[in-house]
Design brief:
The structure holds two protein chains of two kinds.
Chain A: H1 23-31, H2 36-62, H3 79-84, H4 92-103, H5 112-129, H6 137-154, H7 171-197, H8 202-216, H9 220-234, H10 243-269, H11 272-280, H12 285-300, H13 302-315, H14 327-335, H15 344-374
Chain B: E1 9-20, E2 23-34, E3 38-42, H1 49-56, E4 64-69, E5 72-73, H2 78-87, E6 88-91, H3 103-113, H4 119-132, H5 148-160, E7 166-170, H6 178-193, E8 197-201, H7 205-211, E9 214-219, E10 222-227, H8 229-234, H9 239-251
Parallel strand pairs in B: 3-8, 3-9, 6-7, 7-8
Antiparallel strand pairs in B: 1-2, 1-4, 4-5, 9-10
The chains are: A mainly alpha, B alpha/beta.
Chain lengths: 379, 252
Amino acid sequence: MSTSTSVAPSLPIPSRDAPPGAGAVAWLKENLFATWLSTAVTLALGYVIVRVAVALVEWAVLGAVWSVPYSPAGIAQTTVCQNAKGSGACWAVIADKYRLILFGRYPYDEQWRPALAVLIFIGLYAVSAMRRFWREELILIWIGALTVVGVLMWGGVLGLAPVTDDFWGGLPITLILATFGLAFAFPLAILVALGRRSTQLPAVRMLCVMFVELIRGVPLISVLFMASVMFPLFMPAGVNIDKLLRAQIAVILFAAAYLAEVVRGGLQALPKGQTEAADALGLSYWQKTAFVILPQALRLVIPPLVNTFIGFFKDTTLVLIVGLFDLLTMGKVALSDPPWQSFSTEVYVMLGVIYIAFCYAMSRYSRGLERELGVSQRR
Amino acid sequence: MSQTETGKAAITLDKVNKWYGALHVLRDISLTVHEQERVVVCGPSGSGKSTMIRCINRLEAHQSGHIYVEGTELTDDTRALDTIRREVGMVFQSFNLFPHLTILENCTLAPIWVRKMPKAQAEELAMTYLQRVKIPEQAKKYPGQLSGGQQQRVAIARALCMQPKVMLFDEPTSALDPEMIKEVLDTMIELAGSGMTMVCVTHEMGFARQVAHRVVFMDRGEIVESGPPAQIFEDPRTDRLKLFLSQILRGH
């Protein structure tokens, strides 16, 4: 695509054709200072940006308090922080509480185990993201990694002290709910979407429609509530399903209903000719679905899929309602310690950075994936 | 051209009827296609010719009458349907190649999964047919990188890779630019020379004259007239066929 051919000779030369060296100046002139109005807006916005940036650096770096003394009893002396309030951040709260926030009430000396579990999760995401690992073995890697995570967290074998999930908290809880949630919800969603489009099996279709409409029709909080408070009432006495597991199942069902509709959108966008061609070649229903329909349908819905993934990663914070301590809840717990009560900003900034890191990685990855897969998709 | 009426019946349609709601799209269609016979179906749009050909491999289901392909009756029985679809190749107006697979993968998918052929053997077979449609050099490309004519030739090769006994063509050149029609027709003429049983819905009268043993003219869901190309084109007996011929000849 060349613009030079379409630009009339009398118009100003576009900056990309400007001689080297004058590039930056020409770009500024064209994009920021082209007219009086543009210059005024540039200057006004520039002023605001500089002011905010300076204030931020002053608060977060220059005026910040990085550590506080402790009393002989181990209580933090936060007077320095109190004095700096308004002018500087008190990062000492993070230094003091980061392990509580990240790993919850997991026994302090055993916290290398949730830390390792978090690293395994991140490694798992990284491996899954690389296309050259997209083979059948990846499923084994997932099963293996999730088993190792389970062993690390629960313990009780290999000389690891057992830790019940009442003591789990923080980042591992968030990652467990999100990872297991989406890993199980996604295949379920595909089945529900296929079931909803089935013309041969009206009963299955109706069940799928009911599932989606029922789950979508109520807030996640009420599904979690149902799972955690109502569900045990229906169980026979003595049967007790773990609280984390119940919340996990609620998250899976909820995510599945939403993802199913996203997947259905992709299925509907496929031209009918693709199904017909697969039928005419004699492919069975599952062969057709696995090799022709789904690869194309899922590709079409990468943006809304990732949108839903990101939404659910953050929705895991709602499990606080049933008494699970995810990352956000642990932040709140950390702030309930009297000396640190007034330093919520710093804690929430830290939590925000962690959430943004995960969500931004997802969205960047999806953009790359779309570009990469788009190569073969040109029609 | 001699008609092979003594040959075994490859396809038999016996009083086939089909409705779309209240619309009666196929009326008592009876037609027998013998092995190695080449039949061209023509008729105005909406005459039911595409619907009929799509009934032969049950992309559309008929509501009454019987259809037999290679001795097997088409019913709701999926096993019979699988058998028939394995033996019947189809080429579509809009190519319907799988855009996420390479040309080679398009051709090997069904042989590998339906015929359970080893991958190497399927690829070898695919290359043979790609050579026959004269585009072996495109094997590693994706459909979107090929011209319409090339895509349609790949679609023909893909159908042939299943080594079918019958090939159905549903207006294979209608979606092509004029300069690409010839390359596809040449491929089909070459295929006709190999003795394949072919049923082809097309308006390419030159092609019909050159390769068809029989031309079937359909209008409003009925078979109005059928016979050797010379008879159909030079000696039409019904007004409907005369009108149709005058319309398409004016168009050419």
